[in-house]
Amino acid sequence: MSNNTLENLICPGKEGDVVLLGFPHDEGVAINGGRPGAKSGPEKFRFWLNKYDTVENSRTESDISNLKIADAGDISPDISLEEAHSELTSRTGEILQSGSIPFVVGGSNDQSYPNASALLDRTSGQVGVINIDAHLDVRPLKKGRAHSGSPFRLLMEDRRFSGNHFVEFASQENQCSCEHAQFVLNNNGCIYWLDAIRQRDNVIDSFRSALNRLTEECQSIFVSFDLDSIAGSDAPGVSCPGEIGLSTEEATAIAYHAGKHPAVDLFDLSEYNPAIEEERTGRLAVAIFYHFCIGYLERTQK
Ligand code: MN
Questions:
Q1: Which residues place a Cβ less than 5 A from the ion ligand 1?
Q2: Whole domain around residue 248: which residue ranges?
Q3: Could you tell me which residues come within 8 angstroms of residue 214 by beta carbon, excluding any fewer than 6 positions away?
């Protein structure tokens, strides 16, 4: 085993196999009536990244030091939410343009529409999107402003995007209104309710089948992961914790399969809120990044 930590492998820059980008904004949570704190997510994510010292995987013998991982830094912190969204679209776009995969760490979930927009700008074919989230996040804007509950409504209303290429994954019916579920279905989106997945199949196989179904028509896929999709006992440090949710093992396996799938060009991780709980959730957020990288390593070896 080497003594490398993940952080020691990461070079500043916007080109690599996987490129980190931070979105240190949480006004979108406040607008949606939630608790602030997620703006410190990127900073604390990097802190716990430095503690993650397993770079070589002892069982699979895969070694993340074979990947080039870069850190493009953060979106400017002291600007308005709307300016931050615009900077995010442009900087995520630059990373995509260089042929790298952006891994964007929030910050509030409103980051997902600017991220999707960057991918829509740069893909000539169809884009597919999977939102792993307890919530559907298709609420209307509030006083004309985007917020943490609205990113996928903006996506569904974007003419560059086709609603039948949208999957809501691990949604929880006790946290989603019938009106919003109907909005997704009326726009030809698909909802994989967590309870239904568990009854029918298993979470990981369902996620892989959602990915494969999208690739029948889509050239490029964005996987968006809200940490509140994980049970509150495992991920308490999120803006809106729920009791029920994915297990840690399911969350990391989803990240692994997203990393491994050749059509996944963009991944974002939202709602890590260190003001509510820092260490357990921070370590889990980093484990999701690690498993994405292990999956990506296998993608490149095939
Ligand atoms: Mn969300």
A1: 109, 133, 135, 137, 226
A2: 6-300
A3: 128, 130, 165, 167, 221, 263
pTM of the entire predicted model: 0.96
Distance 132 CA to ligand 1 centre (A): 8
Q: Give the separation between CA 84 and CA 96, rounded to whole angstroms.
A: 18
CATH number at residue 163: 3.40.800.10
Mean pLDDT by 10 residues, the chain (302 residues): 70 95 97 95 96 77 88 97 98 97 98 98 96 97 97 98 98 91 97 94 95 97 98 95 93 98 98 97 97 93 66
52 in a domain, yes or no?
Answer: yes
How far, in Å, is the centroid of ligand 1 from the Cα of 147? 10
Which is it for strands 69-74 and 127-132: parallel, antiparallel or unpaired? Answer: unpaired
Distance 166 CA to ligand 1 centre (A): 15
234 residue type, one letter: D
Ligand 1 centroid to Cα of residue 224, in Å, is 9
CB 51 within 8 A of CB 5: yes
Give the count of domains, the chain. Answer: 1
pLDDT for the residue numbered 3: 56
Look at residues 217, 195, 104, 193 and name the one whose alpha carbon lies nearest to residue 151. Answer: 104
Domain membership of residue 114 (yes or no) is: yes
Tell whether 215 is covered by a domain: yes
Reference 120, options 261, 210, 220; nearest CA is 220
Across the beta sheet with 101-106, the strand order is 11-12, 69-74, 18-23, 101-106, 264-270, 220-226, 127-132, 166-171, 190-193
The answer to whether residue 1 is domain-embedded is no
> CA angle, corner 39, sides to 34 and 42, nearest 5?
135
Query: What local confidence, expressed as pLDDT, does residue 250 receive?
Result: 97
